[in-house]
Write a structure and sequence with these properties.
The structure is a homodimer of 457-residue chains. The first copy, chain A, has helices at 10-29, 41-57, 121-140, 162-168, 216-219, 226-237, 259-267, 272-279, 289-297, 338-352, 374-387, 401-410, 435-453, and strands at residues 61-65, 72-77, 85-91, 110-112, 115-117, 146-152, 177-180, 192-197, 199-208, 214-215, 303-308, 319-320, 323-332, 357-364, 367-368, 392-396, 414-416, 432-434. Chain A is an alpha+beta fold and 457 residues long. The first copy, chain A, folds into two domains: 10-197 and 367-453, Zn peptidases (Aminopeptidase, 3-Layer(aba) Sandwich); 199-254 and 300-364, Alpha-Beta Plaits (2-Layer Sandwich). Chain A has a six-stranded mixed β-sheet with strand order 1-2-6-3-7-17, with helices on both faces. A four-stranded antiparallel β-sheet of chain A has the order 11-13-9-14, covered by helices on one side. In chain A, a hairpin with a 6-residue loop joins strand 1 (61-65) and strand 2.
Chain lengths: 457, 457
């Protein structure tokens, strides 16, 4: 079921598309593509096949490409070799959902007025489908651009096979521009375009001082305490009150946030109060809005995720633990290099606690796209036309492996033209998407494709 | 089955007692009096009844006294109101035992040459029975002293009902002297008499900064990290490398170890090397023997038993935890007061981390008996006569609630005339006792009762 596009006013097209959009979104949401659960492997194939059919029914070419893990769906509205190409990345796998916590079944999408309730509705099946509606209108109405689709099915598990997929299909995926539609605005009142990601360096530090827990009455005072020593090490690495990292050289490659960037951070609608409410936090390290936004988007961190070892039951059991493990990570910002930071960390730990064993976990580079220049201007124009407001340029505090892989293999940076809102319950129960963002998003992508097609190559 | 005592040489009596001792010890060990496991409640009653019968068959009076928990067995060889009274404390409940880890069934005592293998053989059924054999000989041979027995069945679970039992039976338990036979020598080559215990103050510090774990990409840098803040607090409380406690005033009431005490600590045979092997520790805070002994017996500690909160599975999960809990305790030495130390700790935490919640767990006073004076001399004489070597005066690093209760309710301090050896596997698998310690112990208690009876009251 598609909607007539040719010669139709964009507003009319979008209005006429509503029923069809809702029907197709339900088709996708109702397939439980939970990538974290191997039991859903067949649903992955089913959803990939359905997505490819959908692309074809809209007039695009489409194919399902196998990887060592879940497949990737690629498609294209191809105009000509002589016009520019843009690729939009989305993903159609979803987070797990515990049905008992939801007010309606997570994999049986319900339309509730303007709201679409179901797992994956906003992350990221809804935005993927929104792009497709916009792309069809642009293509059918002659916008001189080739539009490629890349729908991954392993995003929620860290894209373990995506980089190899890109390498294996590099020619097919050749593009001039990349946009990613998988991010969240800060506030419904203000469109947001993302251009930066933090990197990540995970490490485990282990200390073993014996072979079994020993009674502290027998050995306390003479025996070493590995949890105590790791606590000391952590406190030498950073001041948990302020968040300041004390590892020598850690901040050497960190760039200050420019005045313009800072203005945009605030323009996004970010406030410490809203942040606190959204994440249900009691008190933060600062109450200042600009400093708050800068801390999550543009400053590196040192974080303790857990300390294992010793006694963890109720009350106190007076043992001296024989081993302990600190689970740590550092979020990194442009232009910090995970390799270099790991070396700084390792040198510091070797000096402070030579017996500790350091285990390196995953590392991801930070990412910095362009917030100025013609491509960014095209995105600004599109957001403004569709949503009636100047968008704010923001960064993401997390790390998205797929974006780094696309930059590495395809040689293009990405802008993040997300459509989700804080109230959509990203990764939470009762996830939803809404017609306001879907309809606005369709128009935004039409404008974006037009604006891109007009750029000088 | 008892052995003729009257007019018999002590050595001959002890020699003749061996078969009988082994048979009675097996009767007691084969009843699995695991106080930590409520499923063994009936075994407690069974063992108490059997112990009372045993006391009676030896010619002592005996009764089983009920408490809110497990019963206590009391008995007496009563001579006259005109002679002094000594009470010996033992316990006949035992630690749990996992049969699959033992080389022979823990509750089916095996005699292997001089060794008696079974749970409770050395802790503390063997020593209890040893005292009984010595007491019978002393009594039957006219030593002018009343000898009382007090065999608890809740020692391994912290003596929760013992103080009330003492209060309820204060008249019956009236005594001039108390000895406790439930401690471990440092080395088989050197008898040890204990005279001091460390106290204990358990505390839990909780910090809550949100209502759920949050993704560190979204909030890291702005959100507080309760594990990091507790690690910092712990590092402010003590230097885990040296063990030095940094809470202001903490050491104010700590007395230095005298030169004589220090000499005795070393004379006990304590070495850092043996300690390391016994507890399977890799490296200690010092390699010096005197400092090592002082650290476990005569210095207070700050200990971290565990930190809960956050992620504890394999690898690293990049969440910012919303709450954390540090399980802590301080071992205290004479004349530190748990109340006063708690106040110092509380004041310090309130200043360093005002949002933290402090939960007080158990507290036990430190204990200091007399290592000089007539009673101590009687013990020295007895140990020397029986084992051929001058005993060393040592302290215990742990806390024994029963001893504090006896001092409080009965008004008498205790000396610890233990008979167990490090190689007996106290609280460990393949626990054992041996005829050398049993036979020496019988002689030692005979000498001890004689020496006590000769003291001026």
């Amino acid at each position: 079921m598609t909607v007539e596009t040719k010669g139709k006013e964009l507003n009319q097209y979008v209005q006429d598309s509503r029923k069809s959009f809702e029907q197709h979104l339900k088709e996708l949401v109702d397939i439980p593509t939970v990538s974290a659960d191997p039991a859903h492997r067949q649903d992955m194939d089913k959803c990939a096949a359905r997505a490819a059919e959908l692309l074809k029914s809209f007039g695009a070419s489409a194919e399902v490409i196998q990887t060592k893990g879940n497949p990737v769906v690629v498609g294209e509205f191809h105009r000509s070799k002589d016009v520019p190409t843009v690729m939009i990345y989305n993903h159609i796998d979803v987070q797990p959902a515990d049905a008992s916590e939801w007010k309606s079944p997570p994999f049986d999408m319900k339309v509730d007025g303007d709201k679409y309730l179901g797992r994956g509705s906003t992350d990221d099946k809804g935005p993927a489908l929104t792009v497709l509606y916009g792309a069809k209108y642009a293509f059918d109405n002659g916008v001189p651009i080739n539009i490629k689709f890349c729908w991954e099915l392993e995003e929620e598990i860290g894209s373990p096979n995506f980089e190899q997929f890109l390498k294996d299909n590099k020619e097919k995926l050749h593009t001039d521009y990349i946009a990613v539609s998988d991010t969240v605005w800060i506030s419904r009142d203000r469109p947001a375009i993302g251009y930066g990601l933090r990197g990540l360096l995970g490490v485990i530090v282990k200390l073993k001082t014996g072979t079994k827990d020993v009674h502290s009455g027998l050995v306390g005072g003479l025996a070493r305490n590995p949890i105590g020593e790791l606590a000391k090490l952590i406190s030498r690495c950073y001041d948990a009150t302020t968040g300041e990292v004390k590892i020598p050289g850690f901040y050497d490659d960190v760039n200050a946030v420019s005045e313009n960037e800072g203005k945009d951070f605030l323009a996004s609608g970010f406030t410490v109060d809203a942040f606190k409410k959204a994440h249900e936090l009691i008190k933060l390290r600062t109450e200042d809005n600009l400093e708050g936004a800068t801390r999550i988007w543009a400053k590196p961190t040192f974080e303790v995720h857990g300390i294992t070892g010793g006694y963890s039951g109720p009350g106190v059991k007076t043992i001296v633990p024989f081993q302990a493990e600190a689970k740590l990570s550092m979020r990194l910002v442009p232009s910090q290099d995970p390799e270099k930071v790991f070396k700084l960390f390792e040198d510091f730990v070797k000096k402070e606690l030579p017996e500790a064993e350091i285990i390196r976990e995953g590392a991801l580079f930070p990412y910095m796209g362009e917030r100025t220049g013609p491509e960014a201007e095209a995105a600004v124009k599109a957001m403004k036309e569709a949503f009636g407001k100047e968008p704010a340029f923001v960064r993401e505090g997390g790390s998205i492996g797929a974006i780094l892989s696309m930059q590495k293999v395809l040689g293009k940076s990405s802008l993040f033209l997300g459509l989700s809102l804080p109230e959509h319950g990203y990764h939470a129960i009762n996830e939803n998407y809404d017609w306001q963002q879907a309809s606005g998003g369709m128009k935004m992508f039409v404008s974006y494709f037009k604006a891109l097609s007009e750029l000088k190559r």
